[in-house]
Design brief:
Structural class: mainly alpha
Largest sheet: 2 strands, antiparallel
Order of helices and strands: EEHH
């Protein structure tokens, strides 16, 4: 342990003097060295709050969240526009005057 290193008040791990947060628990000065900050801003779910069945449904089974009405609306609009473009191409191609 060098002169600048210190002990984390939240978990007791050795923290390098130039570290912005504890490498073991994630506590830092902004949060008052609270161990509750370990997963803040990382998009990693807290193991205590992790729902394995929900994760399996979303990631493994391929049954993600249900589509909202707005998502169905824009999907239908996209299909209509695509259909119109295909129809215009076909009509223009078959009805073209040589």
């Amino acid at each position: 342990m060098s002169r600048d290193d210190f002990i984390c008040p939240a978990c007791g791990a050795e923290v390098p003097g130039n570290a912005l947060a504890c490498p073991d628990c994630g506590a830092d000065e902004k949060t008052g060295w609270s161990p509750d900050t370990i997963y803040d801003g990382t998009d990693i779910e807290d193991p205590d709050e992790f729902d394995h069945d929900d994760w399996k449904r979303r990631e493994v089974d391929g049954r993600g969240p249900r589509r909202t009405k707005g998502q169905w609306f824009w999907r239908a609009i996209g299909l209509l526009v695509l259909g119109a473009l295909v129809w215009l191409f076909v009509v223009r191609h078959w009805c073209a005057i040589p």
